[in-house]
Input
Amino acid sequence: MTQLFEFDDEQLASKIEKLDLEEADEPEMPKVGEFASSDGVGSRLAKSYEVPIDLPYQAGKRKKKVTDFQPIKVLGKGSYGKVILVKDKSSGKLYAQKQLRKASMIVNAKNYERTLTERTILERVRHPNVVKLFYALQDFDKLYLILEYLEGGELFHHLSQERILSEKIACFYVAEIILALRHLHLHTGVIYRDLKPENCMLNRRGHLVLTDFGLSKVSTESSSLFGTAQYIAPEVIQGERYDSQCDWWSLGAVTFDLLTGSPPFTGNNNKKIMDKILTQKVKYPFYLSQDARDLLIKLLNKNPQKRLNCDIEFDNKRISTKSSLL
Output
């Protein structure tokens, strides 16, 4: 475990600094309201906070230590760790510090695997719609992932306030999710497997950023049952071999959630929800436009071979023939 977090954090921070400078002139997006995580099959629980501070950041000349970051407040707690808002004492830059106890990894090997997976994926991914990893540190008791602080909070928080989003705003968020998933699928060979509004955060400009890669898989195929019940694809529930197509089902479920205020299938427990996913048809509200309905029908196809594959369709420039919503 001592080798888990050994990589050149200065080089990583320098690369991310360059990426930040390149993104500085990106256009503003539509705003929704005011700006304000899982073991196997999870449930929807979320809290969001707002700290309207953004100070300039420059990578230091020496390697960072845990003591270089001053804790400010707890942003959230999970089953085996928590996320704290911290400030770099030398620069004033704010970060989200994900803390994970080494003891929990010794007791539960899955916690170790998920931490290693998340660290590995975030180290290799460079995309504006995927959370950035700046440093990976450790002390005697804990491991620390120093991540990009996303002031906008969770998309779930805004959705709970607005109840439903207009198709214009939902389309913007869905398009950015597609960009992130395509990058993960095509450039890093990652199946995300846990797409839900709670894992979609907003940065200070309001752009969507995917977070929490503990359940992701660095592979082209898998057969493990992971995810959150309301958003799991049928082939995952059935224990079949599946690929990145499962993420496009989850995108359909998230899109349905944004436009209607709830996922397509709900229930009192995870088993009931997953039974409905396998056996029932999706009921579309009357107020959805034909474009929205067309996109949802193609994403929420129980047959992964017939489901809309945005990885392929965008490459062939045929997405417009599939749905004019995008």
